[in-house]
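tool=predict chain=A
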Amino acid sequence: MEQQHRAVIVGAGIGGLTAAVALHRRGWQVTLLERATALTPVGAGIALAPNAQRALDVIGLGHRVRALSAWQGDGGLRTPGGRWLSRTDAGAAAARFGGPLVLLHRAALVDILLSALPEGVVRTGVTATVTDPGDDQRPARLTAPGTGTADRGGIEAELVVAADGIHSETRRTLFPGHPGPRYSGSTSWRLVVPAPARPFAPHETWGAGRLWGSQPLKDGRVYAYAMAVAPASVHAPDDERAELLRLFGDWHHPVPEILAGVAPDRILRHDVHHLPDPLPAFHRGRVALLGDAAHAMMPSLGQGGNQAVEDAVVLAHHARTAPGFVPGRALAAYTADRLPRTTAIVRRAARTGAITMLSARPAVALRAAAVGAASRFGPGLALRGFDGICDWNPPADPVPSPGDATRPA
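tool=predict ok
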């Protein structure tokens, strides 16, 4: 019987978990090391576009994700006073990209991914460090205190997947000359609350240097997110709810109602960093970078987590172990597939983010006029901005998912 190849994944976020499932289904013996002491997903939602759903179909989980998700309905883009600048057509989007956008809580997605892994694969409270990326002749090596291997020279693996986030230590080890992440000039907030009593349509609202979005989840709650131009590493003098009330408290329904229903300690705030300078490659030796560690992007296209899911499935596709795994060839193919695509999306997200965060009144007025004018041509013009992103297909045949052909009632 052929011995299983061993893959070690560093980081148990969405990308790392998806990579663990995808590699496990390819026959790899997988160990996933997470520095946090428990897998407690952030209290936020995640939107999965058709491209990421097709990637999840490859590992047989797309139908489960759709079953637990809210299918995005018609909504649109608004001004802080409530005027609609443009309307979205969920049906037109689904027809154009081969499926709907769906939303679910990150905890639900993490549970789905964990359920597809054998017991004992995930080990928490472990900080893993790559000490040797290896090559075609020798394995990669990591140190991981707390795994019982520190006194025996560390861990050896045929493949290491670094999904250790935007401030990735592994990226710095592999590419010490790269400038790393850069502050975008904006900070972000995320929260999940019970739905307000009065109904509302899904929306994103653009103000002067500020943005708010409200999206219903299937379980009756609402996922809300916000961004604002702000200095780096500056937090509210009192609490984040008070800060959001100052910035958004007089905006249209349901924004004030959502803020009234959230406790200050349930609001997540993070400065928005990205990697505008692309890496020379997404691998070195036997180590592959994935997700934010490889191509962190602004959230303006909603593609950060989606691209991590794509990465995981493409990496597993190239890391086939039969008739033999040749890391140099396999990971070079992974880089060739992923680097150009994600670089283009990072740049598109940065351009879109700059437009959404315009602050000068003349620029904001011109933006509103341009969006309104474009909306008169129907949904096709707005959806064109996602061409080449949401219509992506994975390099493998999807696993059939029962019930996917029709939208649930």
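Residues 397-409 have pLDDT under 50 and may be disordered. The chain has 13 helices and 19 strands.
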